[in-house]
Design a protein that fits this description.
single chain; alpha+beta; Ribosomal Protein S5, domain 2; Alpha-Beta Plaits; 2 domains; eight-stranded mixed β-sheet; four-stranded antiparallel β-sheet
Length: 374
């Protein structure tokens, strides 16, 4: 309905007066393996990052909900009959609408959002916003929603109201993962397993500086191509195809469906191997192979990401590196020896910036936890 830029760094009390009735928080995530597999009913292996989104809410009388986003310095108003046009507010609106569809009596709200999850770089800022919103609503209304149900409602909000036909990995990671375990997730059954972290290794996340929006990128096209490939193969989802057993069937698909299917089935196999692998070098090799497949078979990388990944892979203290998130820009992730993390991040980033490119370290070295014990 309306949008205006209030002054910066206002608290809930500054914007609305008084105090919030409930607060919810949720982290972003970085995906170690299993890219573009969740919406194909496959397997993924994300881990939460330290950065979080905080949502404070309060029920009010009337029909108009007001959202203040501190990081965007923006205030947006909407009603259930008149949804917002601003992209960030559609995620919140979608969560509230999906809660109402569940039979929850959602009142008009004052909502304050503050986040340090980087946006537009593949670290699930939208899922963090959705899960934090639903957690705040759960607290405010004392709702019987467990963390899996919250993830499911958050996914529906993104699909039905933000226009992104996402799988459920981001929302499940934001709702169930922590920063000290990798989260193995079967996207079909929603079976989860926390994988103990591997001492002596750590995650480095670098932003390529190439922003992307899933709603306007080729994400939905890739999903449609996967669905078409599954239909041609006579299965419900590409998760039901085995890379070795069904190699001839995959090769018989027309391009680009052959390459799309090839990525998904081999990526699923990499995740299943990763949770049983014997050492970080083996895990790193799986990460490297994943990037090649994302670049060549799924065609979601960009030259800047390829440069960063290649530079990281060249460092002897790096076990493996790949783009993370849906691609089309965004970030890359590397599995490193912990003592070398700061030096590698600074060295690779410095060489990247020297080319006139923009980039940054997204998970600060002093906050990057140990990662993955296979």
């Amino acid at each position: 309905m309306t949008s205006q830029p209030p002054s910066k760094s206002k608290s809930f009390a500054d914007v609305f007066g008084g105090s919030a009735g409930a607060v919810g928080a949720a982290p972003g995530r970085v995906n170690l393996l299993g890219e573009h597999t969740d919406y194909n009913d496959g397997y993924v292996l994300p881990i939460a990052i330290p950065q979080q989104t905080h949502v404070a809410i309060r029920a009010i009388i009337g029909d108009t909900t007001t959202v203040y986003a501190a990081d965007l310095e923006r205030s947006v108003q909407f009603t259930f009959a008149s949804p917002p046009t601003e992209q960030f507010a559609t995620y919140i609106y979608g969560c509230l609408v999906e809660a109402r569809i569940e039979g929850i009596n959602v009142p008009a709200l004052d909502i304050h959002v503050a986040s340090d999850v980087p946006m537009g770089v593949g670290l699930s800022s939208s899922a963090a916003l959705e899960v934090a919103t639903l957690r705040a609503l759960r607290e405010l209304l004392d709702l019987p929603l467990d963390n899996v149900r919250i993830a499911q409602l958050a996914q529906r909000a993104e699909i039905n109201h933000a226009g992104v036909r996402c799988g459920i990995m981001d929302q499940m990671a934001s709702s169930l993962a922590d920063t000290t375990h990798a989260l193995f997730l079967d996207a079909r059954t929603l079976h989860v397993q926390l994988i103990d972290l591997w001492p002596g290794t750590a995650v480095l996340v670098l932003d390529s500086g190439v922003a992307r929006s899933l709603a306007t990128s080729g994400f939905n096209q890739r999903r449609a191509e996967c669905e078409q490939a599954a239909r041609m193969l006579g299965v419900a989802a590409l998760r039901d195809i085995d890379a070795d057993r069904d190699a001839a069937k995959i090769n018989a698909l027309p391009e680009p469906l052959r390459r799309r299917a090839r990525h998904v089935v081999t990526e699923n196999a990499r995740v299943l191997r990763a949770v049983k692998c014997g050492d970080p070098r083996e895990f790193g090799a799986l990460m490297n192979a994943s990037h090649v497949s994302l670049r060549d078979n799924f065609e979601v990388s960009v030259s800047q990401l390829d440069w960063l990944v290649t530079s990281l892979q060249a460092q002897p203290e790096v076990y493996g590196a790949r783009l993370t998130g849906a691609g089309f820009g965004g970030a890359c992730v590397a599995l490193c020896e912990s003592p070398a993390l700061t030096r590698i991040g600074e060295m690779v980033l410095s060489a990247y910036l020297a080319q006139g490119l923009r980039g940054r370290v997204l998970v600060p070295p002093d906050r990057a936890g140990q990662v993955l014990g296979c």
